Amino acid sequence: MSSSLNSGEGLTRRNFLRQLGVATAGLAAAHRLAVPAPAAQGIPVPVVIFSKAYQPLKLGFEAAAVFTAEAGLDGVDPPVRPDGEVLPERVADDLPAYVAALRKRGLQMPYLTTAITGVGSPQAEVILRTAKKLGVERYRLGFMYRSDTVPWATQLRETRARLTELAALNKEIGIGAVLQNHSPSGRTYVGGDLNELAQIVEGFDATQLGVAFDIAHALKVHRQAWPQAFEKIRPHLKVIYFKDTDRENHFVPLGRGEVAGSGFCPLSKQLHYESPISLHIEYEGGPKEQPKTRGELLEAVKDSLTVLRKWLG
User: Fold this and answer.
1) In the CATH scheme, what is the homologous superfamily, with its name and number, of domain 7-312?
2) Average pLDDT, whole number, for the chain?
């Protein structure tokens, strides 16, 4: 628990959590009784979409759930962060509504993508406790940035100390965090290099702090050397993100870049990976524009599922 709360805030939080338990008990029970099976795509695990892709369409939760079902997906991995699909200050109301819309259609929300980087992040505890009661399994940590003026050893020590506090909160709540390997994009991300990511998560229980592995970002950073670096984080692997990148470092539609020839797809079959895949539809900066209409996005998702079926089915 954050030590910055005064007694009045603590009382408000306790009241909120008590009310939240009553409001979401039915949803949690439904989640335990009927976890959706993988979509009929010939893919061995469920596939959910990082629903940042929905935001340009300005879909409400009901419309997002309808789209998800129509696309043949198993659910969503929504951004719950400032300017996200769900705003942190609205999470107590909006996240249950989103989950309810999904479950009416047999869909799930196994993950969240957040801006949380420590126990003191805005709304962190409310987000995590709400998510847990709704059956969310894991959340992605927010971005942390490398400093050019502070030695890496110092940054590593400070990052691990902050994540140690967060891992303790995760254990108390019963939810897991994952840290994504993210290639530089104007700024360098902590953990973008898999060797450094391995240093960050070393010694942590992967149940509380694991890795979301993104092969496209790994190819950007490590090129053909990614398998050796991947082995260092493999014990902490909890989530796989799928998107594609070309030789010019542009994100491109799945199957049109370097991922197919990277060796990751055969390896992923050997990992005995059972968690949902998070599909990312991101083409920014590449020869193909980001889908802007419902029809364009629907086509992009269905094409990606066809590729995943070929690769993994």
Assistant:
1) Divalent-metal-dependent TIM barrel enzymes (3.20.20.150)
2) 89
